[in-house]
Amino acid sequence: MAASTKKIEEALAHIREAEKSLKTSLLKWKPDYDFAADEYNAAATCYKTAKQYTQCRECLMKAVENYKLNRSFFSAGKCLEQAGLISKELGDMESIYKFCERAACMYQEHGIPDTAALSLDKGAKMIDLHLPEKALLMYEHAVDIVMTEDRPRQAAEYQSKVSRINVKLQKYDAATDAIRREISYHQAGENNPAIGRLTVALVLVQLARGDTVAAEKAFREWGSYCENEEVQTLEMLIQAYDEEDGDMAQRALHHPFIRHMDVEYSKLARSLPVPKCSQDTKKPGVTDTYPPYTSTSGADVDSVTKGVGGTSISGGDDDLDLC
């Protein structure tokens, strides 16, 4: 208790110094914003040590405002990130989103987009269980930022999280678009094995939408990137849904590599409604052998990625003043 009290007194001393530095007089015409910001930041550290999180966050926000007035955008961004962490301690998940978005804005002003995207990634990880819709917006924003620097590999990493959250939220139309965009980034980065795995994911999402034709089309478009095991399983799966063969569908969906996919896709596979008809009641005239796919991967990477860097985050808080 004594140590906590001492830290609080130390914080108050820093606040007094900050307020003093902001005052003007006949001999001091301009407030010292940089010194005030440093003092508020020091006060926030003392409050954090004393576990006075509300006062800590208040001091951090005062530091941010003074850093902004002095155009010290990097320092302002660091304080906003700290405010996000303190908000987590307070259980205020909504504020994490706001603070991390503002931090990203500060880092972009400072000219370090990679740090801006990383700040969004950190914030999204903190709220994805509680506010998945907000986390989705943050990952989409991170993708936009890194694509302004033409970094498709890094964009693919963030885009994969966009795809998985859409699947988690059962927004399958959005998930389809997200996966296709993720594939385009892997194409640009020449990461072919990842495209094969995403082909399986795309087929599963199309089946979840109840569109077996789109599932077959996705397989034919991207199947050339799949491993032999993936090809055989997808052929079996699509044939099972086409013939309404529930037993075959179950065998395909319980294949080990599908069960060991990313958690959201694995859950999706387990929850897919399978045809109720058995092998004995398959559609007349349908052969047992599924026609081999042909590689028609005609995705135009430029058309998908062109202009991405210039886009902005959508669907955010209308009242949110990012900067």
Automatic annotation (TrEMBL):
Membrane association type: Peripheral membrane protein
Any one GO BP annotation for this protein: intracellular protein transport
InterPro entries with a match to the protein in the record: NSF_attach, TPR-like_helical_dom_sf
Predominant cellular place of this UniProt entry's protein: membrane
Keywords in alphabetical order: ER-Golgi transport, Membrane, Protein transport, Transport
A GO cellular component entry from the record: SNARE complex
Gene3D superfamilies on file: Tetratricopeptide repeat domain (1.25.40.10)
Pfam families: SNAP
Signal peptide interval: none
Similarity section: Belongs to the SNAP family.
Name the record gives this protein: Gamma-soluble NSF attachment protein
Source organism (scientific name): Petrolisthes manimaculis
Taxonomic classification: Eukaryota, Metazoa, Ecdysozoa, Arthropoda, Crustacea
